[in-house]
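Same chain as my last thread, 153 residues:
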Amino acid sequence: MNQDNRNESPSALSLTLVGIQFVLIGLIAFTGPLWPSDWSLRVILAVGGVVGPWAVQVMGLRQVKVFPEVPGQGKLIVLGPYRWIRHPMYTSVLLVTLAWTLGSPLPYRLLLWVGLVMTLLVKLQHEECPLMEPFPEYEAYRGQTKRLIPFVW
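reply #2:
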């Protein structure tokens, strides 16, 4: 489904959420190792490193936006990782940063990661509400998929 004539300018809330998101990712990335020594954390990092690009490839670069506003020419994507979760790019970010955080689990890094989780939860909520207007089928899609963790939540 295509949707025309939508305002694609990011709102103040979107600008704030994206800004906080990137600051938190940067702080996590620059305060510890990017390649964890533990193999289980490397698996988490690899899964996150696969899910994100897979979601981008399925969505198409032209539709990928950093801000949660619905693009004017947007399409509802329900293939690839979107079959199981509605926000696979957020899942990817959380998995990669979790692996980085647990690679050096200092209290302030854990707090940064919790802050990132909270920011992305607010951002995805801000994104989901406007999707129902241009895509009436989104409500049924929400009932069939999970937000971030396949088959769980």
